């Protein structure tokens, strides 16, 4: 049984839980993004943030992990494309597609359709309905399900933002990668070019025995810390730290860094996340964003 549990621990995701996709920008900030939630990354992390600003944006991301969870682990490829429209309607609409290929251990698609509505001037509410279609080994697990996220975002006039998100609220019964979970987040921007974020993730359905995902569950937590600084009006510098005790199996900790260049109509981003405990399991990401 111990050997089987170790096999499961190597094959299930290092982080993320209800998110199959962490964008390049939040990856560089240690995942501390749910109270910031600007750009198309809001679709998966806190969909309420899509209506923060009037904009139309298209994004494309590639995320790669050369040695997933072990020195001889599979190369994971994630391809993501999304569009957000907050110009033509009084509410924001987001559409995203994510393709994941992880050797023989996981392959499939995720499609998101998200909406965000400003309830008041600084209070936003969002809904994300998404379809999950994945095949995973071992045990030939197959997921074909639709579930829902609900997010809220409050922004103040003095630089403080608060976010709350519920993930997989219809409980698709995929306890290893899409458990019922939530996050509470806070971000503070003392001046326009600097933002500091903290996210607290709660997994309500973490299997106590990773070899028996449908067995007894427990509540577990993850902690995300991140900072982003805009230098010279165009160069973005990011850093973050991630304490992941919420995932199934052994906990881990990650450091992350990111860089970006932004103009009035497009941006280029790069990010990297590395494990504190393992030389392998490093993830890199690149993105192109276009907006108006």
The major sheet is characterized as: 14 strands, antiparallel, barrel
Percent of residues in beta strands: over 45%
Question: Strand order of the main beta sheet, please?
Answer: 1-2-3-4-5-6-7-8-9-10-11-12-13-14
Annotation, overall tally of beta strands = 14
| CATH architecture descriptor name | Beta Barrel
Quaternary organisation of the protein chains: single chain
Q: Topology as H/E string? A: HHHEEEEEEEEEEEEEE
Describe this structure in words.
The protein has about 290 residues and is mostly beta strands. It has one domain: Porin. It has 3 helices and 14 strands. The chain has helices at about 1-10, 25-30, 40-45; strands at about 55-65, 75-85, 90-100, 105-120, 125-135, 140-155, 160-165, 180-190, 195-205, 215-230, 235-245, 250-260, 265-275, 285-290. A 14-stranded antiparallel barrel has the order 1-2-3-4-5-6-7-8-9-10-11-12-13-14. Strand 5 and strand 6 (about 140-155) form a beta hairpin. Mean pLDDT is about 90; it is low at about 1-15.
């Amino acid at each position: 049984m111990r050997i089987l549990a170790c096999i499961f621990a190597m094959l299930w995701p290092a982080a993320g839980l209800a998110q199959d996709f962490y964008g390049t920008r939040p990856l560089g900030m240690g995942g501390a993004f749910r109270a910031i939630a600007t750009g198309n990354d809001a679709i998966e992390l806190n969909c309420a943030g899509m209506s923060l600003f009037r904009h139309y944006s298209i994004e494309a991301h590639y995320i790669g992990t050369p040695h997933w969870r072990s020195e001889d682990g599979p190369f994971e490829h994630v391809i993501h494309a999304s569009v957000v429209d907050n110009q033509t309607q009084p509410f924001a609409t987001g559409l995203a597609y994510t393709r994941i290929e992880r050797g023989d251990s996981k392959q499939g698609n995720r499609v998101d359709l998200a909406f965000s509505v400003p309830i008041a001037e600084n209070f936003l509410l969002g809904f994300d309905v998404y379809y999950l279609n994945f095949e995973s080994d071992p045990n030939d697990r197959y997921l074909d399900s639709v579930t829902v996220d609900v997010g809220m975002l409050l922004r103040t006039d003095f630089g403080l933002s608060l976010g709350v998100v519920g993930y997989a609220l219809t409980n698709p019964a995929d306890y290893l990668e899409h458990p019922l979970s939530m996050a509470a987040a806070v971000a503070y921007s003392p001046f326009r070019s600097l933002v500091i974020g903290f996210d607290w993730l709660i997994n309500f359905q973490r299997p106590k025995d990773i070899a028996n995902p449908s067995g007894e569950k427990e509540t577990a937590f993850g902690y995300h810390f991140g900072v982003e600084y805009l230098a010279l009006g165009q160069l973005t510098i990011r850093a973050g730290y991630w304490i992941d005790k919420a995932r199934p199996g052994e906990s881990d900790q990650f450091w992350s860094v990111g860089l970006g260049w932004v103009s009035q109509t497009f941006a280029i981003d790069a990010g990297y996340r590395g494990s504190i405990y393992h030389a392998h399991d490093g993830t890199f990401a690149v993105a192109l964003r276009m907006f108006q």
